[in-house]
């Protein structure tokens, strides 16, 4: 081969912007040996020359070249493993590097001069500040800093003070933004063309008539026109424009730009729509429709100029301070966006955040370009600035714990640190200017080995920034391999993989040039043997990183896509199994929330009430539905559910066990399948009584399995008020038992009496109190012929005070008693129903736990008590019960339709709980 | 001894059965009617007659029969008649049928308390003497009430025939100046006497834990409601400011009758509610309950965060392959 093969091409972003400063390498097949490399220019173009003698297979056309586009961190932005070339010819290539280029930091912070701040023009600083603010959440300090930076560079035109709130939204393709925009305009009876990228400016309604004139508006710049002051921009259809804003008085050269020269270029505005914003209602309250960045657009032209100024700085090759500032900037961005900060002197990371909203995309892209330009410039100049170079590692594939020697020059005489990939900087064993000996750390990975030699520390804008010596590292094949990431359609393990559709399995490993990567993809049916899995893919000779698109079978029930990765190098073997559920992701919805209590009406109130009583346990039933397009009958297991009440996060009560005593998780289905009479069709939460006060928000969150943010979830909020009602004041007296001794009851006996007496009033009235008497002598009452009715008579006399009325004139605080007080005598054996509604006195029988729910010994006292509480109802046939039992463990409220005891929150047809549950309930009472 | 006031009612009480037989209860003279009974429709009439059988005054008591477990129904009759000095008999009739007639003596009984003492065995001994102006009048019976100034009046004995009463001090609400009143009645006419003040010691508050119930088994992931009350020895509810909740020896809430326990650890627990405020001596009660870890189906594996990119050698970006376009 005597001729040089030449490859030319261009790398662009999806947006069409050139990818500047990327490294383009050409290799033969998957071999590690690079036969040619180049960097993309500012236009994104590159030229690769393959010198004579490096072209394989003589002069014939050959395929199988591998071309990679790599950014500053070594991240492969694009890869083509089937490039065909012929010696003596030029091959044109064109690559799209993806939707966003990955903006990276220099491997080492650049040489930062102590006079950096004086070199960097204030405008460039403003660019950086603006970019920081733009990326920062609104309201954050950084955003405020940005706002100040913009405002500082705005002309004192008087427009600023009237500048309206602005926000960004992509209009095209975003119907919601369009709808919002229409809404804004509708308020003002204006129209706008969909394809018209504009900024709308609105004046405050309170503005005097004389000052009403269009303030700021941008359109397609070539169409920028002046609008007569009397033209109302909001009623203008079509081009909507007016005078562009005034800009700074001088450009970089000190000349005053004309108005039109400072107009914003079209390519900046095209992808962006800006809406304005403050609309005053008739009552004077202002409504912001787009809560966005303040005044950004007003400063766009200024920023645009500043941006160019910053690029000028770069092109002036005053690189070091700018690089330092960019590094600082990116660190700030990392702080603001949650992205990881670069490791000092070590690896750098992508900072493009896929979660960044599109609305910052244009500016973000410009920022990326600026940073990339700086990095590229750094790279270009790197060879001249290189302070050290590692030329060899011996042995090149040493395992962790063993000693290696780094050979090269420029290491310096003072020992510093060696940086292996994947580990923190390591102290060397021996260090000289041309040779370093160091132990391979345990966490070392294959990859480049660099040095971390501190050159100095400077203060930049109140921050101390360390900078390190530039240099060139050397690839290392030792260390343990790593499976860095395995994704399905770009999503991590746990995300849903849709059946019947292709899925792209991508992987990123660190195995070094000599590593070995294997992957197997299987479809596993849950509950079946792994031997019966369907193998979708299996390959033992994969590159370190890549992806494969697989067809996922159209299964009709949830199965698992299991990816088994195995990476091996000379040091170690790493395996990893990852699972993605193959299913149609459910759309969960909270169909309804019911709030109920055992109490269904306030004591003494007429009729059933929907109010809930403060200070009583409350049940919240949540109905959840799932829509999976019919997949798996739309059923979804809910594995996360919480009800938040104040600062209390409540888990749901367990579902009732099935016939085998097994408690199953809650399963949501179609909305039409929800049956309110089924206790397993609702998530039930118990809000404890102390939280049931006043008005609170009930916030329900439910979710199904899946890795966030892909896990299906739903939430609902409900504001609920509990009504404070005077508790039922009850005094009780225990009537002596069958033995007729008349002895005062023991504490336990009283408690037993109370529980039995109130076992149909399970939310105990908190004003229950004992009478002063220990007990009435029931036996004597029987013996003197008056029977239990005599006991009731005496209770009535006590209640209404007639028992001591003959001495009333002698006492300072005579009767009567509390007219709302209810006196209850509980007897040792069952008397007939004894009720004196006039004196609100009842004689209730003590029943045994064995008595079933329909046993009249249990229901009769309840009815009697109900009758005393609601004496206006003479019939004892029900609907007047004030409280019904609540089973705290099994969620059921007790209903006794035969005796008119209902929990009105339940639909008709719900019967008593089963005998077994009842027994358990009694045990717990 | 205290004389009956000059203007009084006579309380008439008894029980009438379906067969119109009547069982009399002891009534009395009173100048205060604590609660006027409901007025009937005139079917039943209670009359006060003079010596000649002329009706001086009448009233219509309400008589409502209630079921009595399959047995004969009965109704309580309570009425108050103004005690005109000329009255000599009282008659209860249902329309024209006379159900009960009783003679009303001209004078009322007299009673005098002779002794009020605290015995060595912590009893109050009360003794009295009583006499009837009419030696041929009906026999006397006695009622005794305890008066605790500012706290109430508490009947402690009824239908006594003896003239001595022993009452355990522990059963009486405390008072610095407690007094006893004795009513002597022949069934209609009555006299009363009030003792000298006597000191009755205060008793500890009565504290009750209404929730949780003893031996409760409670799931650990659910907050637990605490509800309790304290009453003084007179049965009055005490302000919650003196309540102290203690769980396993550690105070968990104060000054509230309703409290919340959360993050309970599984195991046995002892909850104590103590009254430590003014108004009653200290008292406490306790319940033991169990917190159990709920046995639920095993949830899916906990969701781990996305693996953090941590790589010394960045490699292929995930989206690269999908977006690669090649033009030759």
Largest sheet of chain A: 6 strands, mixed
Q: Please give the count of helices of chain A.
A: 13
Structural class of chain B: mainly beta
Number of domains of chain B: 3
Low-confidence stretches of chain B: 297-328
Radius of gyration of chain A: 40 Å
Low-confidence parts of chain A, pLDDT < 50 over ≥5 residues?
57-61, 97-138, 149-386, 458-464, 600-610, 873-922
Mean pLDDT of chain A: 60
Strand content of chain B: over 45%
Q: What does the average pLDDT of chain B come to?
A: 83
Largest interface: A-B, 125 and 102 residues
Considering DSSP H and I runs of 4 or more, what fraction of the residues of chain B is helical?
Answer: under 10%
Counting DSSP E segments of at least 2 residues, the number of strands of chain A comes to 42
The radius of gyration of chain B is 35 Å
Q: Could you characterize what this model shows?
A:
The complex is a heterodimer of chains A (925) and B (328). Chain A is of the alpha+beta class. In chain A, 18% of the residues lie in helices and 28% in strands. Chain A is built from 13 helices and 42 strands. In chain A, strands 30, 32, 33, 34, 36 and 37 form a 6-stranded mixed β-sheet that branches. A 5-stranded mixed β-sheet of chain A has the order 15-16-13-12-20, with helices on one face. A 5-stranded mixed β-sheet of chain A has the order 39-38-40-42-41, with helices on both faces. In chain A, helix 2 (122-135) runs parallel beside helix 7 (319-337) and helix 7 (319-337) crosses helix 8 (361-385). Residues 57-61, 97-138, 149-386, 458-464, 600-610 and 873-922 of chain A have low confidence and may be disordered. With 328 residues, chain B is mainly β. Chain B folds into 3 domains: 9-103, no CATH class; 110-200, Sandwich (Immunoglobulin-like); 206-292, Sandwich (Immunoglobulin-like), CATH 2.60.40. Chain B has 1 helix and 25 strands. In chain B, strands 1, 2, 3, 6 and 7 form a 5-stranded antiparallel β-sheet that branches. In chain B, strands 12, 13, 15, 16 and 17 form a 5-stranded antiparallel β-sheet that branches. In chain B, strand 21 (243-247) and strand 22 (250-254) form a beta hairpin. Chain B starts with 8 loop residues before the first strand and ends in a 5-residue tail after the last helix.
């Amino acid at each position: 081969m005597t001729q040089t093969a030449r490859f030319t091409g261009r790398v662009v972003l999806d947006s069409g912007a050139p990818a500047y400063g990327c490294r383009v390498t050409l290799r033969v097949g998957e071999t590690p040996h690079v036969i040619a490399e180049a960097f993309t220019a500012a236009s994104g173009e590159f030229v690769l020359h393959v010198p004579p003698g490096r072209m394989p297979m003589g002069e014939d056309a050959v395929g199988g070249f591998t071309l990679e586009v790599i950014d500053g961190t070594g991240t492969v932005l694009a890869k083509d493993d089937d490039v065909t070339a012929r010696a003596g010819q030029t091959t044109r290539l064109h690559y799209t590097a993806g939707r966003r280029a990955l903006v990276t930091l220099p491997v080492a912070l650049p040489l930062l001069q102590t006079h950096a701040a004086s070199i960097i023009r204030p405008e460039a600083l403003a660019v950086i500040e603006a970019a920081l603010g733009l990326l920062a959440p609104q309201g954050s300090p950084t955003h405020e800093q940005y706002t100040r930076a913009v405002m500082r560079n705005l002309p004192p035109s008087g427009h600023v003070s009237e500048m309206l709130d602005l926000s960004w939204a992509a209009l095209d393709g975003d119907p919601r933004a369009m709808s919002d925009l229409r809404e804004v305009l509708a308020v003002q009876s204006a129209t706008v063309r969909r394809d018209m990228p504009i900024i709308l400016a609105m004046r405050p309604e309170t503005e005097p008539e004389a000052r009403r004139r269009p303030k700021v508006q941008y359109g397609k710049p070539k169409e920028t026109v002046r609008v007569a002051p009397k033209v109302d921009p909001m009623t203008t259809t079509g081009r909507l424009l007016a005078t562009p804003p005034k800009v700074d008085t001088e450009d970089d050269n000190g000349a005053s730009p004309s108005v039109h020269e400072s107009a914003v270029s079209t390519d900046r505005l095209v992808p962006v729509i800006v809406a304005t914003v403050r609309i005053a209602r008739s009552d004077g309250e202002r409504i912001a429709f787009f809560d966005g960045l303040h005044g950004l657009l007003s400063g766009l032209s200024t920023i645009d100029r500043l941006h160019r100024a910053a690029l000028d700085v770069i092109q002036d090759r005053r690189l070091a301070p700018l690089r330092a500032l960019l590094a600082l900037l990116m660190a700030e961005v990392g702080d603001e966006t949650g992205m990881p900060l670069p490791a000092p002197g070590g690896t750098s990371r992508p900072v493009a955040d896929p979660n960044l909203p599109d609305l910052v995309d244009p500016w973000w892209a410009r920022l990326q370009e600026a940073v990339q330009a700086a990095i590229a410039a750094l790279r270009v100049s790197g060879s001249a600035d290189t302070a050290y170079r590692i030329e060899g590692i011996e042995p090149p594939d040493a395992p962790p714990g063993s000693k290696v020697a780094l050979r090269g020059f420029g290491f310096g005489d003072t020992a510093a640190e060696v940086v292996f990939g994947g580990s923190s900087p390591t102290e060397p064993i021996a260090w000289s200017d041309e040779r370093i000996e160091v132990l391979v750390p345990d966490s070392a990975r294959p990859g480049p080995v660099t040095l971390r030699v501190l050159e100095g520390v400077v203060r930049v804008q109140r921050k101390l920034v360390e900078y390190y010596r530039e240099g060139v590292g050397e690839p290392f094949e030792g260390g343990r391999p790593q499976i860095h990431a395995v994704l399905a359609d770009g999503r991590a393990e746990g995300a849903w993989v849709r059946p019947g559709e292709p899925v792209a399995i991508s992987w990123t490993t660190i195995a070094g040039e000599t590593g070995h990567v294997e992957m197997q993809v299987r479809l596993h049916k849950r509950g079946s043997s792994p031997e019966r899995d369907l193998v979708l893919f299996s390959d033992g000779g994969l590159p370190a990183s890549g992806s494969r698109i697989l067809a996922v079978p159209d299964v009709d029930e949830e199965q698992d896509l299991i990816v088994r990765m195995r990476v091996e190098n000379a040091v170690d073997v790493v395996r990893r199994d990852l699972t993605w559920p193959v299913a149609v992701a459910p759309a969960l919805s909270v169909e309804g929330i019911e709030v109920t209590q055992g109490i269904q009406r306030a004591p003494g109130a007429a009729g059933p009430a929907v109010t809930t009583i403060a200070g009583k346990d409350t049940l919240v039933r949540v109905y959840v539905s799932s829509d999976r397009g019919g997949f798996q009958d739309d059923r979804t297991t809910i594995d996360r559910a919480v009800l938040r009440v104040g600062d209390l996060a409540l888990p749901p009560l367990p579902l009732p066990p099935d016939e085998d005593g097994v408690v199953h998780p809650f399963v949501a289905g179609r909305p039409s399948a929800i049956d309110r009479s089924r206790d397993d069709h609702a998530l039930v939460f118990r809000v404890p009584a102390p939280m049931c006060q006043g008005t609170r928000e009930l916030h329900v969150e439910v979710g199904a399995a899946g890795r966030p943010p892909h896990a299906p979830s739903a939430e609902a909020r409900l504001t609920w008020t509990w009504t404070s009602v005077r508790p039922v004041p009850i005094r009780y007296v225990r009537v002596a038992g069958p033995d007729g001794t008349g002895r005062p009851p023991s504490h336990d006996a009283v408690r037993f009496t109370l529980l039995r007496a109130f076992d149909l009033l399970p939310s105990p009235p908190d004003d229950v109190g004992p009478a002063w008497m220990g007990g009435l002598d029931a036996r004597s009452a029987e013996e003197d012929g008056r029977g239990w009715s005599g006991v009731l008579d005496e209770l009535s006399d006590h209640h209404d005070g007639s028992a001591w009325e003959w001495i009333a004139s002698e006492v300072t605080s005579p009767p009567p008693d509390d007219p709302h007080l209810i006196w209850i005598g509980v007897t040792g054996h069952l008397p007939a129903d004894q009720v004196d509604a006039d004196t609100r006195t009842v004689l209730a029988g003590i029943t045994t736990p064995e008595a079933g729910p329909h046993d009249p010994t249990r229901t009769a006292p309840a009815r009697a008590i109900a009758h005393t509480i609601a004496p206006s109802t003479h019939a004892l046939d029900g609907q007047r019960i004030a409280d019904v039992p609540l089973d705290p463990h099994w969620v059921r409220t007790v209903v006794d339709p035969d005796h008119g005891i209902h929990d009105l929150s339940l639909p008709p047809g719900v019967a008593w709980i089963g005998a077994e549950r009842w027994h358990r309930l009694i045990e717990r009472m | 001894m205290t004389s009956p006031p000059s203007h009084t009612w006579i309380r008439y009480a008894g029980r009438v059965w379906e067969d119109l037989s009547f069982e009399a209860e002891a009534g009395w003279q009173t100048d205060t009617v604590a609660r006027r009974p409901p007025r009937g429709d005139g079917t039943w009439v209670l009359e006060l007659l003079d010596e000649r059988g002329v009706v001086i005054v009448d009233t219509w008591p309400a008589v409502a029969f209630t079921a009595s477990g399959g047995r004969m129904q009965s109704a309580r009759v309570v009425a108050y008649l103004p005690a005109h000095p000329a009255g000599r008999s009282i008659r209860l009739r249902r329309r024209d049928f006379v159900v009960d007639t009783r003679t009303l003596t001209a004078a009322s009984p007299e009673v005098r308390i002779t002794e009020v003492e605290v015995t060595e065995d912590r009893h109050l001994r009360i003794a009295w003497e009583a006499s009837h102006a009419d030696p041929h009048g009906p026999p006397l019976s006695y009622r005794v009430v305890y008066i605790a100034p500012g706290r109430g009046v508490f009947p402690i004995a009824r239908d006594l025939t003896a003239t001595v009463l022993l009452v355990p001090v522990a059963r009486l609400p405390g008072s610095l100046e407690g007094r006893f009143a004795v009513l002597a009645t022949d069934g209609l006419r009555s006299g009363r006497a009030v003792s000298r003040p006597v000191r009755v010691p205060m008793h500890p508050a009565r504290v009750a834990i209404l929730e949780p119930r003893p031996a409760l088994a409670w799931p650990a992931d659910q907050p637990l409601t605490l509800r309790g009350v304290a009453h003084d020895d007179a049965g009055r509810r005490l302000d919650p400011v003196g309540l102290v909740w203690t769980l396993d020896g550690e105070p968990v809430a104060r000054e509230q009758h309703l409290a919340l326990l959360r993050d309970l650890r599984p195991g046995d627990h002892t909850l104590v509610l103590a009254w430590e405020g003014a108004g009653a001596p200290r008292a406490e009660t306790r319940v033991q309950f169990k917190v159990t870890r709920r046995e639920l189906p095993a949830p899916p594996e906990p969701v781990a965060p996305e693996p953090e990119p941590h790589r010394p050698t960045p490699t292929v970006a995930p989206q690269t392959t999908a977006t690669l376009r090649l033009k030759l």
